[in-house]
UniProtKB/TrEMBL annotation:
UniProt GO MF annotations: hydrolase activity
EC number(s) reported in the record: 3.-.-.-
Protein name from the UniProt record: Polysaccharide deacetylase family protein
Lineage: Bacteria, Bacillati, Actinomycetota, Actinomycetes, Kitasatosporales
Start and end residues of each stretch annotated as Disordered: 44-71
One Pfam family from the record: Polysacc_deac_1
The NodB homology domain, residue ranges: 114-293
Amino acid sequence: MNRHGRGRTTVYAAGALALLAAATGCGSGGGAASAALVPSTAARSTAPTAAPPAQPAGTPPGASPTAAAGDAAAWAKWHLTPLPPAPPAPADKPVKLPRTGPVPVFSEVPTNDKVVFVTIDDGAEKDPRFVEMLTDLKVPVSMFLTRDIVKDDYGYFKRLQALGNRIHNHTVDHPQMSRQTPEKQKSEICDDQAALTQQYGTPPLLFRPPYGDGAHTPALNTAVQQCGPRAVVLWRESMQIHDMQYQATDKKLRPGDIVLAHFRGPKDLKGETMTEMFGELLARIQEQGFAVARLEDYIEAPAA
């Protein structure tokens, strides 16, 4: 399949393909199967025609020397090399969500921009240093939260939300969805939707099933439609402790890939902290020359 935004096959979520459950946690031990994609008419963002003024070495194109120095210092604080800047959000969003009917399932965004999208699941680890890290680095993430895991400290995720990061639906208590009755699947999604909407002021637009399980089943698609989210989001890579697990056999990122990580701490990361794991994730992305863009900037939400 051409994974660079052109000629991608459009498939919607009523397919019968079942996803393998992850070996550990919410899927960090193994990714989801290749998911359906949404059509795109967006062209790749074009660079400015005017050359930027001379900058100190290491300054990102278009940035002021002062801002660049501040950014470099922030990354150095975390022992990291800055990522390339993300391009402007596309005016024509490549993922267009339907207002009604079956919801699409996707694990990548059709784009030629050399960007990936970072998503973080569950909410078990609430490390204040991670808020500091995202404040410093300004790397966008999308959060898929599980009500019974985050309800002891909703406020922690409000601090991350205040940085511009969106909150999405990840069920009430993280069950394997294909093993639940249709009624139970609905309650898992609808009750999480209600709680997250009440706490964070915005209804979650997206849903991720735990382990990616049941993502392509009619029962889950119906439950998602009934509860409010307008897409099921899977992933192409999942972050372990020091490296990513890839679905692609060449173990390389592709433009538009969605990357899965988790709110995890030393207990689950063999002594590593959330910030150390996230730093390793950013280093793997930087090594391959990718920027991190905001997933929601590439999605056109349906009109109310």
